[in-house]
Specification:
The complex is a heterodimer of chains A (173) and B (185). Chain A is mostly helical. Chain A is built from 8 helices and no strands. Chain A folds into 2 domains: 93 residues, no CATH class; 78 residues, no CATH class. The longest helix of chain A is centred in the last third of the chain and has 24 residues. With 185 residues, chain B is mostly helical. Chain B is built from 9 helices and 2 strands, in the order H-H-H-H-E-H-H-H-E-H-H. Classes of the chains: A mainly alpha (173), B mainly alpha (185).
């Protein structure tokens, strides 16, 4: 079982594995792999703690009820699965600043935190606007040959490449 | 028989968790729960993300369409519009570049101890998704409907057999991956 402890697998092994996982997900759960709805439902659940039941009246939450669903469990599972993989290969480590960020932008935790937070806001907002994320559109939607997903996935990368290039041009290290 | 499984709520939550655990394990093993790998992709220096995504798409596409022909799976095409997918996609892309994780990999990064993913990425995503839910009624009538095309698939758009499109797309992706490997990317 030494292969389970390896730090990294070939991207093709991982990709084929995710592809097979998508078969299981369609057959057993009648559900494509997708992550971003879990975040909007959780956001709704948190808002419900503060504002009560009236949150459920929002038109968006009538479509995506703020409750624990399959996708919520999927995202919870991702955290656990990545933890197991990192732990058994000795890579688990609390860390604020990724090496590549530190080399270019610097080691100030506050700056990394605020940029990650703003990035997260754009990501959560954009994923719901686009109707999916890199897994829901990028993998599940593209494999179903959905026009919406191919369009969205291309735009994810156009926006992502432009933004990353800009950051690393402003902070060349 | 499958429908009996689909309607069992508790079982489905367990299946969601199990599938998620395998998904997270694979993402971590692929290296894509790391900021450096994702940013490396967006800077066009490291093509790990694209290799994983495209090989998952090829494998998934062939399998899911076969399962559909065998009546063991149903497709779930997302409906879309230009206003939704293009503008939303670009906004998502800005977040992708700033954060250096996407909604699935941010969860994986959290699992491997990345604090920027937990306190920045996940918290930010919850805020962003909440803002969207709050202003959704304003967006719904106009911009999200601009250039609406609905639940459209590429074979429907091109008016050809689905398997023809699958063969061409898979051949193109495999060729692209082959060229990438040959050129040392």
């Amino acid at each position: 079982m030494e292969w389970l402890r390896l730090e990294q697998w070939s991207p093709y092994v991982v990709g084929v594995g995710i592809g097979i996982l998508s078969w299981l997900s369609f057959v057993l759960s009648d559900h494509p792999l997708g992550c971003s709805t879990a975040f909007v439902r959780t956001s709704g659940m948190i808002e419900k703690l503060f504002r009560g039941k009236k949150v459920e009246e929002r038109p968006y939450y009538r479509q995506f009820s703020p409750t624990i669903t399959w996708e919520f469990m999927l995202v919870l599972g991702i955290i656990i699965g990545a933890f197991i993989s990192a732990k058994i290969s000795g890579q688990f480590q609390f860390n604020w600043i990724p090496p590549k960020w530190e080399a270019s932008v610097g080691d100030t935790v506050f700056i990394r935190w605020i940029v990650a937070l703003i990035g997260g806001i754009f990501l959560g907002f954009g994923a719901r606007w686009a109707g999916g994320c890199t897994s829901g559109h990028g993998i599940s939607g593209m494999l179903q040959l959905a026009v919406s997903s191919w369009l969205a996935a291309i735009c994810f990368f156009i926006g992502g490449i432009a933004t990353a290039m800009l950051i690393f041009r402003v902070f060349p290290g | 028989m499958l429908e009996a499984i689909h309607t069992k709520k508790g079982l489905q939550l367990c299946l969601g968790l199990l599938i998620g655990i395998v998904f997270g394990f694979l993402l971590q093993k692929g290296g894509v729960t790391r900021y450096d790998v994702i940013i490396g992709q967006l800077l066009l220096q490291d093509f790990t993300v694209v290799k994983i995504m495209l090989s998952a798409v090829v494998t998934g596409m062939i399998g899911v369409h076969l399962l559909k022909s065998l009546k063991m799976a149903r497709l779930h095409l997302k409906s879309g519009s230009l206003g939704q997918n293009v503008i939303g996609g670009l906004i998502f892309g800005i977040g992708f570049g700033l954060l250096g994780y996407c909604p699935g990999t941010v969860a994986g990064a959290a699992g491997q101890g990345a604090l920027d993913a937990i306190f920045g990425g996940i918290v930010g995503m919850l805020i962003g998704a909440g803002i969207f839910a709050a202003i959704f009624p304003k967006l719904q009538k106009r911009i999200l409907k601009t250039g609406y095309f609905g639940e459209l698939s590429l074979p429907q758009l091109l008016k050809v057999n689905a398997w023809l499109v699958i063969m061409i797309v898979c051949a193109a992706i495999v060729a692209l991956l082959f060229i990438m490997e040959k050129s040392g990317l």
